[in-house]
Hints:
The chain is α/β, with parallel strands linked by helices.
Amino acid sequence: MHIPDMNLLVALNVLLEEGSVVGAARRMNLSAPAMSRTLTRIRETLNDPILVRSGRGLVPTPRALELREQVRGVVELAHGVFTQGQDSDLSQLDRTFSIRAKDVFFGVYGVALRRKMALEMPNAALRVVPEGFTDDEALSEGRIDLAIGSTLPSSADIKVQHLFTCPFVGLAREGHPIFDQPITPQRFAAYDHISVSRRGRARGPIDAVLAQMALERRVLFTTPTFYSAIFALADSELILPLMPQLLLKALEPLGLRLRAFELPILVKPEEISQAWHPRLDNDHAHRWLRRTLKTLCDNATA
């Protein structure tokens, strides 16, 4: 009886997670040509193209989508078999953790987390996955290990732990005329705003609050990340109205001439949590990751 090559299953799992030959090659420490040859072997073995060209990227075939969760499960099971009994030796763990979170979170906690990993899990790597618009099955299907944010999958089988509460402040350049007088809702709305939205939305909760006061603001710049918004403030009359307060300390080493201000309207803070699938509950390394992140967040907000 022919026994399938386990390495092909591992490679298939990585290819389906990455959706890219180059990305899969990087994760498996292979050259792109070697990864392409592996993909060819997988296609021949399964008699299916598995990944097909779509625009500039690759998308999975229906057959690949059917296999994705099964392949992930087999690889995780094999990983568990070969690492059983090694729970106490995180220093030898060779593993990549895929975490879905906003850039703000890793801008604040990323350095401290990497330092902890370098000490206790030096061979482990982090892969930050951008938030998707409708990707609620990523945890259940094993394509990410952890999700961090204010909007998390609502499935009953997903476990959630609160990390911290994140209030907002406003941000503008030093010397901005908004600081010349007390910042009232009227003056706040009078200056041109920046909107941070991964969906490209210029309107949000602020507009509803202002509308109740018969006020309206003008949004002249919409961007998907806070970092691009922050750099847009320099030498401009724009203001950033919803800046996560926790990011202020991370900006200090950059030496940017920016100044925060208390919002003159009531905006609810965000509740930030981490979520994971129950199959990872007793995974020693995953428990270390969750515990470490929780400790970092607790210490930062203490």
